[in-house]
């Protein structure tokens, strides 16, 4: 698989919570930071999203917002309105006037990842992915949003399952859309996948994680000098090439240990270590505990 598919496959994302959000009139709510990737899809109307210390962002009908981590934020009908603190809930939410047809209809919620490797994805993604309807409407992402809106408006049997699966597909499509877009992005995997030379390197690393890759090997693959490649990789990915390889190897190892179906010898061989002892030493140095203890704690 390609690097993005590899990482998402390892994380096994699911739509943990999805709920309808409606509002009418003047309203504003604020939420504390919470440890879960959040999303919002505006099905009708508009709203303003603000993070502490930043300018408000206008969200319009058809917009999709994904927050790989969810910092404190406010959502409101106007950009400078006072917001009241509220707590996340797992049920339908109504803001503003309780009666009357809503001005805003949205779907919001959170995704769940396998906890042992969630930091891996969060470290490789931008803090905010905003896909305006004007940019996503003609893509499959736009068609997915239309299908999701249609499903939400029905009460057919199996609705909850269909909505969850559509949201999971929407997550992957949003990440893929962002990776081929044209706007500036922070360092991370998606930035690396946009760079043809670095994309070749990332594909090779993920295709053969067992290989004894060196910076010189990877630089030749990228068609660059060793020093130029190392500098470029660090700038675009946010870490050195061998550090990226080590992180990915440990991510695979943590997933295998969590599942508990492979021996240390087999895990070591599959991710490129000469022995279980060498793997255990590297794991302890990076994670602060031996593999066996890690496996017991996450079981």
UniProtKB/TrEMBL annotation:
It comes from the Bacteria. Gene3D superfamilies: Homeodomain-like. Residues 199-297 form the HTH araC/xylS-type domain. SUPFAM superfamilies: Homeodomain-like. PROSITE patterns: HTH_ARAC_FAMILY_1, HTH_ARAC_FAMILY_2. Keywords: DNA-binding, Transcription, Transcription regulation. This is AraC family transcriptional regulator. It comes from Labrys neptuniae.
